[in-house]
Amino acid sequence: MKFLRRSLIRLKNLVTGQSADQRLREEIAEHLAFQTEENIRAGMSPTEARRQAVLKLGATQAIREDHHAEHSIPFIENLLLDLKYAVRMLLRSPGFSFIAIATIALGIGATTAIYSVIDATLLHPLPYPNPAELVRIQDDLPGVGAQDVGISVPEWRDLESSGIFQSVSVSGTGADVNLTGSAQPKRLSYKHVSPNYFAVPGVDAQLGRTFDPHDATPGFNLEAVISDGLWRRDFGADPHLIGKALRLDNDVYHVIGIMPPGFRDLGSTSEERNTEVWLAAGMAGLPFPPPLRGTRLHGRTVARLRPGLSIAAAQERLDALVVSLKKQYPAEYPAQTSWTVRLTPLSESVVGSVRQSLILLFGAVALVLLISCVNVANLLLARASLRGREIAVRQALGAQRMRLIRQFLAESLLLFLLGGIAAFAILFSTRKFLLQLVPESLPHMNDISINWGVLAFGLALSVIAGTVFGLAPAWLMSRFDLMGTLRQEGRGSSGSREGSRARQILVVSELALSLVLMVAAGLLLRSFWDLFTLPPGFNPDRVMAIQTWLPGPNDPTADMYRTATQESVLVREILRRNRTLPGVEEAAVGDVDALPLGHSVPNPLPLIREGIETMDNQAPAIDGPIVSPEYFHLLGMSLERGRLFGDHDLEDTPNVAVINEAAARTYWPNQDPLGKRVRLRLDTREPLSPAKPTWTTIIGVIADARMESLADAAVPQIYRSVYQHPAKDLVIFLHGQLDPSAILAQERSQVQSIDPELPVFHAETLKEVLSDSLSVKRFSMEMVALFAGTALLLAGLGIYGTISYVVNEQRREIAIRLALGAQRGNILKMVLRRGLGLAAAGAGLGVAGAIIVSHLMAGLLYGVSPSDLPTFAGVTLVLTAVAFAASYIPALRAMRFDPITTLHSE
Amino acid sequence: MKEKLDVLQGTLALMVLKTLDVLGSQHGWGIARRIEQISGDLLAVNQGTLYPLLLKLEHEGSIASEWGISENNRRARFYRLTAAGRKQLQTETSEWERTAQIIERFFKVKAEDLP
Fold first, then answer.
1. ipTM of the complex
2. Which pLDDT score is estimated for A492?
3. Which residue of A lies nearest to B51 if distances are taken between CA atoms?
4. B54 interaction partners in chain A (CB closer than 8 Å)
5. How would you classify the pairing of strands A608-609 and A677-679?
6. Are strands A543-549 and A760-765 parallel, antiparallel or unpaired?
7. Less Cβ around it within 10 Å: N or C end of chain B?
């Protein structure tokens, strides 16, 4: 306590130090005055009185110094002195300071910016209490190659009572719903969730309540919880909204709760739209299928583990449970499907898809930071050689080595801190602009911010970098050969041999690091370019897609678009009206699955082939877009065999379908798929469908197109007609000379003149859809390319500085050579050789590093080998060219030395 | 002339506190004079060392100071004991007395007194 208190006092004295000393002096003066008066009264002459007074008091200066020593902290005082001196040094060479600070700001700013993205995504993927306990549960049937087949209601109950979990929630994957009743019908994303859905993350409503976890009402409940965003946007943050009605797909729900701002739907990934409405469902009872083990709910199971249970331990217990269930219900879980249940951390499903890209970015940016630090260290060393005399004189005057190192360290720390502060200021003022560069599909895009954590990161980075990269130059600087440097008086100064060796090592590592970055950028660019220029198998030119959504009320009889025949009236009218729109040449309709690359949550259907005995729950899943007959022509998808369906294939005529070549290859290898019959639903167990299975006949095969992702060539597809199968999520495709700015309004008035309750939204060209599907790839490619360019620039500056320095150092030698008759061309060659030597060493090291790095990032590459020769060769060539150019200028200068003047000036 | 005694470590503070306790408010020179007088010129107090001590005591909160006018119409800084200082004086006084008693006993005891 006493120590603490004394330290505090000392600290206070440091601040008030001046005043304490002042006090002391005043008091002493006062004392002398008193004593002098007293002495005069005792009969002394004024002079003698004063003299005696001073004698009696003692040595004033010593008193003051003692007091000061006892009441201050010499370390901090020295630090302040060092800082003062460092500031003076910075101001003395503003050019150097500016370049150094700008370089540091570049490195730290870029790193901090990427860190803010990582902070929001990788480090805080789940904004819930105890996020480590949250897991996703997936049922797999590896025996038939099926993954994530969904959970059945009995299995869900088994999990709930297994003792492994605190709670297990089941939800739909999320879909759209029409909100009507306001000025303009709206499309919202909603999820049907089990009533304990909010109990799993452990987040309560900010207003009202969430669903009652004990409520297990069968079927759909007419209660809705809405997001804060929806509440503010569409209901003006009405505090009395609780209990009011919400019309969704013509069903009336009651709002029971509003989630707090920032609540993020459980496990929403980059692929999912932002859920704004949650509706409770019992997941059993009508209209859900009967709770059989084989009838799996399509959706997502998210659970919270019992506290203290690790994922591995839980998985072990789960495996045991699966084994015992298989024994108990052998008929439901046949051996050949080998049913398994798999736990994955929920965070993985949120950020798993972007982790590699982000780590790559962070690696790239760390390299840039490293290079900029190396460059500054290089600059510091260069300056040290100019300050050799100053340092030698200070040493000669008795400055201790530690003291000198501390002094230099203070200078470099000051530089790095200023750089960090500048970086932060730039980041903060440009954050709005920077956020626009981030692809929207990045998870937690909205949470990316420049917050205190990011600030702390940036500052810590500056301090660490400043210490690490300031220490080496400081060390080398303080080792100047005292006598040598002083003896060289007037001959300019030269740093120690160690100093120049250190500079060369720094430049070589800079070159190597930038080569690594350039190779990474080159490979990413090549794979991105391959994807971008790849023929997608359909023609996106001059095609626009506009979405609408038909309501699907809970009571099927209230649905005016229940059957394909009912819906066809609307579809045909939409198509007829669209053809009259200005510029439209062709129009077609499809569901969201038919929107190429625009549906990120594919909705696969079980494919049951006639003549192949499969249990329903073992059926392979296939994508089944629903389209109008014009679709194939509009998108330029060519028919390979058979025929397409047409306007005459209706609900009451036999069901027909067209498959792509991938489906033909996968499911009917070495057979003619034409005429084969399939079922696409679990007919016998689907309560809403006719009891008799209806068969769909394959009538045609079309060429493969990249519908799911540009990187995936052959995803099996089965296309069916919208006149035979109703679809709720309609996409209207228009081909022609269209005005993107006017088309949405035109389409809205067309559609709403048929049915005013239909929302019309999201008009985009297929080109945009295509390019959006590559946005994360494009983002990382562009960023890495940017960083690589920066690195190259910095490396060029580094080699320029080093060669200039070497030339300067050898001025005398070169001048003597010239005076003795050396050819100027030889001097040029000599200097260039040195530059190229450094470049060769850097390139050699860099290629080795780049091979390692490129293999680590192989998962991000497409269509290009990690050791792609043209990329490596090209990058090495560019680097060498830059190194050559950077050495050429100083070499030219060396060549033009005038021997007489140079030697005279020495 | 008798050799003057050096002030024992730490006792100067006690003297200052006691002086202020007796005199109430007093300026630095006054305190210095008082200590000299009481010690009967037996103690060699380096008067200068008094001022750093006063500053220290003030920092520690044992005494407080304010400007005032001295008896001969000089502007001077007057020190007075604070509540904390008074308490400190009490503890230190009793500690000092205990130490003195113990030392005294050591002086008095003779070989035959020991059991």
1. 0.83
2. 43
3. A24
4. 27
5. antiparallel
6. antiparallel
7. C
